[in-house]
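From the pipeline queue, job 12 of 40. The input is one protein chain; the requested action is below.

Action: predict structure.
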Amino acid sequence: MSSLSGCFKFARPHIEANPCAGVRRYAENDKAWYAVTEDEAEHLIATAYKDTNPNMGPLLRLLWESALRSKSEARTIRLENINWDWQDRHGNKRGLIAFVGKGGDVEGVPMSERLRDELRSYVDAHGNQEWLFPGRFGTNPIDGETMYRAWGRVLKAAEFPKIRLHDFRHGRATHLIDVGARPDKVQALLRHKTRTMMDRYVHMTQDHAADALIDAEQALREADKVVDFRRSGTKSGTRGKRKGSDES
């Protein structure tokens, strides 16, 4: 629905109104997505760099670092829309990627130093001319079918369960909140217009924290059992009451 609404948004000069405006959009199924962890992401990225499709390693790095949507945003980035020399307000040279977002708006996402260096090296090594992730002949971006087939190979080579490329986006958001990033800052990175999805990510990190507490409590109980066992195996003297004690 969001993609269709974006198409009508582009056509607004030629139509009276967006027919998708006001149409109810159903909530996502919470059980349908998986939050990739940082260690899992790095394992999958390393595996992707060994794939026969040279796009996959840099693509997964981009998805993890930027939390872009794989098919509608990252796949179709043009090289002319990358400013390799862009600096943030602190003067750090990061680079900026401009792209057409889910709603049809042109948006920009800054790069980390690692992401910029990896993408720059990849582009220089393969001589890409127009697209960041070109298709077989370089005149078009990598098509979705080719991308998903390569993703399937990466999962198989990494001996990883079947998950979606989009789960990198969920994983990145959850990871950032886990390490202390403010939810409103993460919301800005993901470009969510409402806090609905952010509340899900926060809930997930709370679940992670609860799981950690359960594990810690279990470890303490196990440690107490060891201590009790050691105490029961030692001889202890009997201490009598002190003379004049009020205890009965």
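Job complete. Residues 84 and 223 are 54 Å apart (CA to CA).
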